[in-house]
Amino acid sequence: MTTEATTASGAKPRARPAAVILTPSAQQRVADLMAQAPEGTIGVKLSTPKRGCSGLAYSVDYVTQEAKFDEKIETPGGTFYIDSASVLYLIGSIMDWVEDDFTAGFVFNNPNAKGSCGCGESFTV
Q: What is the pLDDT of residues 99-120, one digit of tens each?
């Protein structure tokens, strides 16, 4: 996956890698979410609000309006956004969707995380 930007002169530089790589399973989950999304939804957005034992948490929500500086990643199942304030915490991360008999959820392999709480719900950079 790549994302494209334009320069101030309007020229298109070469595409740069996306800040977060979504596994095929995560892409399918985005498609599933978009298939059942409320009216007016334009995509799914990842952010890292301050909360939890370690300071930051991962939050995935529907989005109805594109924010100017958010990272935008086109996936086969819909548009995936990354909150502009969260991009630096997430560069190089891999986002996966994992389901087993007892749980289901997005799992993040974040090389920027220096630690996490015992329950795994929050992280620190």
A: 998 889 888 888 877 766 555 5
* 93-99 and 20-22 beta bridge pairing: parallel
Predicted TM-score (pTM) of this structure: 0.78
CB atoms closer than 10 angstroms to residue 87: 17
Tell me which residue has tokens 């996956």: 1
Alpha-carbon distance of 66 to 81, in angstroms, equals 8
Structure tokens at 4: 């494209």
What are phi and psi for residue 26, nearest 5 degrees? -70, -40
Strand order in the sheet with 122-124: 56-57, 122-124, 115-116
CA 37 vs CA 29, 57, 62, 124: distances in Å: 12, 23, 7, 31
Q: How many CB atoms lie within 10 A of CB 120?
A: 12
How far is residue 112 CA from its own chain's centroid? 14
Query: 14-64, pLDDT tens digit by residue?
Result: 666 788 999 999 999 999 999 999 999 999 999 988 876 667 888 999 999
